[in-house]
Design a protein that fits this description.
The complex is a heterodimer of chains A (about 400) and B (about 375). By secondary structure, chain A is an alpha+beta fold. Chain A is about 45% helix and about 15% strand. In chain B, a hairpin with a 2-residue loop joins strand 2 and strand 3. Chain B is globular. The chains are: A alpha+beta (about 400), B alpha+beta (about 375).
């Protein structure tokens, strides 16, 4: 038992660090806020990694993965967090990709995996509906077979970045008479340019437009776009959610976030001294750091288990709960640290013409918006209450 | 990175686990802690026979070549059965001082007896006014010719009634809270001038207030360098903390399992109370706290051999996090057991009591939070 990296692993770290330094676009370093980013910016690093063959480290090598073990992938995420790269969006690489290579047919693999890897094919997720959030299996969007097509009707919501998406994966009801709601659902790939697909942005509390309502009206999709078997979509959906959760802890990013928080608290003053020297504040930061250490080792233990052949199991629900709590706490403390300069709304200055002038220090610019935005993390990917239900069932055995 | 235990460690865990299950059930323990002695020499001898007491010593010192990970394995099993026998004071603390700073003669004199189970130690470090500050010492050891003369009062010395020998921290020079001027001695409890007031602790163990009045110690009672023992004391204390974190993990694991089992059996409103989501989620949170504690115990244990700052940071982080989890799990376990959790008859209350006292040993949450903050800024 040990926590040390081997000389080979340290050499690997050097290699990926050098690659990131040479290839990551400088103007995108530390860009965490999607509000400031163009779609090109969001896929820039993904496309560079695609060319290198590093965009989907966790995939099996035969489908384009890197063959890195869990420790190497952990090092990879640490090195990316160090620079603050904008990692490939999860919808293709972490979600639909694994579903396609696991349950899809050869045609689907050939059609989609290369674009997912290269970053050319932008994906969005059509799961939630206005009436189906935590109770996802109650979804109402229907796909009715009509010759060689499914005709899809319904409304999806919270479709993240669908405004830029080329493709979407949708859960649709194909058997309204199934004995259980989970049994009549299919997993269907939809070209977002198909007539009848309409994407309407939703403004969120942080002022941004990250998610959308997606309306589907008589959308005709070739039956070849069904993944796996008809009415077996729930199995694929659950598989996908477990994959989504395993990367969701965000340990490396949060570690970098704590470092930044310490820098901010060193720059801010309270009663003539750096804020970080205030015991009450320092205590909150230390508690966060301690909780993060516990999460980190827990994630490493889980990764070690995966390496030993176990797939992402219900333990990933713990990582999701703790990881998102810590991400939220980090943004909460950052907002607290910047004091009054958390108040001005970014980009709202009415001083006619000058766009260089900003209110307050750099580090305060998005602090409130980021805090507001991060409330989503305990809601998405299966809310943290749903995660507790999963642990209740799978680990406590109730 | 590797989270696997060796085959030997797995074997020791299995053997110890069987022994604790078979001989240290709730009822056996209840009877044991009610005896005059309050512990079992027989169990201690068995631990020696199983090689448990010698595991963490090097082969050249007369042990079996293990280390802190072995102590972690042992203490987790102890925690599951709330074993009271003094492994931490004897093997981790006294053993630690001897391993790190003992002379060949001192090792020869004491380690064999520890490994064979004949020599039992207690670690007398705390004082009535020192709270958790290991350097705040009123106990003094003054040079007198070739001897030292020891005077002072040590507080809540766990396991002292069972011990033949004490490891004592004392001031040989400097002011009351100086980090310099501190030394460590091995004291034969039967030496003239040593008196004890023995008592039971709320978590089923025994302890003493220990008084030294002009106790003459020969020069070779000193372990390590005179006046420079503080870093050594911190190191051994950190090792003890890591071991006790493992003990807490064992106790938390059982407390959680007992609570889950109880909730499945106990019916109210015509259904098992485990079917209530409000209780399910609380038991999930207990489980999460336990898992985080296991992680922090690994972290602390695997950082013990690192340079001082890294070691202290990991140990303090673990003590804070496991302390919080211990309180959380203990209190929730009682709540979910309802009125039955309040009774002495149910085992859960005994786990709750041990998990409560865990926090105040070797520095509580606040103490280690302060140390963590100081290390982060320094």
């Amino acid at each position: 038992m040990n926590l040390e990296f081997t000389p080979e692993e340290n050499a690997f770290r050097e290699e990926v660090r050098a690659f990131i330094e040479e290839n990551h676009p400088k103007h995108l370093e530390g860009m965490g806020n999607r509000e400031d980013m163009s779609p090109e910016d969001m896929t820039a690093w993904h496309k560079i990694l695609g060319k290198k063959g590093w965009s989907a480290p966790a995939w099996p090598v035969e489908y384009g993965g890197t063959g890195w073990d869990a420790t190497q992938r952990y090092i990879w995420s640490e090195e990316n967090a160090r620079v603050g790269t904008f990692m490939p969006l999860p919808f293709g690489v972490s979600m639909v990709g694994p579903v396609i290579y696991t349950f899809g047919n050869e045609e689907q693999k050939k059609q989609h995996l290369p674009g997912i890897l290269s970053g050319e094919e932008w994906w969005c997720q059509g799961y939630s509906e206005p009436g189906a959030g935590s109770d996802l299996a109650s979804l109402k969007t229907t796909a009715v077979r009509d010759g060689d097509h499914y005709v899809i009707n319904g409304q999806k919501t919270w479709t993240t970045l669908a405004q830029h998406a080329d493709w979407g994966f949708f859960l649709c009801r194909t058997d309204p008479d199934a004995a259980k709601p989970q049994e009549g659902i299919s997993f269907i790939l939809v070209d977002m340019k198909t007539p009848g697909v309409e994407v309407k942005p939703i403004k969120l509390i942080d002022g941004g437009y990250e998610v959308n309502e997606t309306w589907l009206t008589d959308v005709r999709v070739p039956v070849e776009n069904l993944v796996g078997e008809e009415n077996k979509g729930w199995t694929y959906a659950k598989f996908l959610l477990a994959h989504e959760r395993s990367g969701i802890a965000g340990v490396a990013r949060s570690k970098r976030g704590v470092e930044k928080l310490r820098e901010i608290a060193a720059a801010e003053t309270l009663e003539g001294k750096p804020l970080i020297e205030d015991f009450d504040f320092a205590r909150k930061v230390s508690q966060l750091e301690i909780d993060l250490a516990a999460l980190e080792i827990t994630e490493l233990r889980t990764l070690a288990g995966e390496q030993a052949g176990k797939g992402p199991g219900p333990e990933s629900s713990i990582l999701k709960i703790k990881g998102t709590e810590i991400q939220q706490r980090l943004t909460e403390l950052t907002l607290e640290a910047v004091g009054s300069y958390g108040t001005p709304m970014y980009g709202s200055i009415a001083d006619h013409g000058s766009n260089e002038y900003q209110i307050g220090p750099d580090y305060a610019q998005h602090s409130a918006a980021t805090y507001f935005n991060m409330r989503k993390t305990s809601i998405y990917g299966g809310s943290n209450e749903i995660q507790r239900n999963i642990i209740t069932k799978m680990i406590l055995g109730l | 990175m590797d989270f696997n235990f060796t085959e030997e460690q797995d074997m020791v865990r299995d053997g110890l686990s069987r022994m604790v299950r078979e001989q240290y059930g709730a009822e056996e323990r209840r009877q044991l802690i009610a005896t005059d002695a309050g512990w079992s020499r027989e169990v201690w001898s068995q631990l020696a026979e199983l090689g448990i007491l010698g595991m963490s010593f090097s082969e050249e010192d007369g042990g079996f070549g293990g280390g802190a990970i072995d102590s972690m394995v042992v203490m987790e099993e102890f925690g599951k059965g709330l074993v009271v026998e003094p492994y931490v004071p004897t093997v981790v603390c006294a053993g630690g001082f001897l391993k790190h700073a003992g002379t060949a003669a001192q090792k020869e004199e004491h380690i064999g007896g520890i490994v064979s189970g004949e020599r039992v130690f207690a670690f007398a470090y705390a004082e009535p006014r020192g709270r958790y500050d290991l350097a705040n010492l009123e106990t003094s050891a003054k040079k007198d010719g070739g001897d030292y003369v020891l005077n002072g009062h040590k507080a809540v010395v766990i396991g002292a009634p069972w011990a033949s020998h004490l490891v004592v921290t004392a001031r040989t020079s400097g002011e009351q809270t100086d980090k310099q001027g501190i030394s460590v001695f091995i004291v034969d409890k039967s030496a003239e001038g040593v008196t004890t007031r023995d008592y039971a602790t709320v978590d089923g163990r025994r302890a003493s207030e220990v008084y030294f009045e002009n106790v003459r110690l020969p020069a070779d009672a000193l372990i390590g360098e005179e006046g420079n023992a503080f870093p050594l004391i911190e190191r051994v204390t950190d090792e003890a903390i890591a071991a006790q974190c493992a003990e807490a993990c064992g106790a938390m694991k059982v407390a959680h399992a007992m609570t889950l089992e109880y909730a499945k059996q106990r019916k109210q409103f015509g259904v098992p109370i485990a079917s209530f989501q409000v209780l399910q989620h609380r038991m999930v949170d207990m489980y999460t706290e336990y898992e985080c504690s296991v992680s922090m115990t690994y972290l602390a244990t695997l950082r013990l051999e690192k340079e001082e700052r890294e070691r202290k940071q990991a140990v303090s982080a673990a003590k804070v996090r496991v302390g919080q989890a211990a309180h959380h799990i203990g209190e929730e376990a009682i709540q979910i057991h309802g009125g039955n959790g309040m009774t002495d008859e149910y085992a859960i209350g005994h786990y709750f009591k041990r998990l409560t006292i865990f926090d105040s040993e070797f520095g509580n949450i606040d103490h280690h939070m302060k140390r963590h903050i100081a290390l982060a800024s320094g």
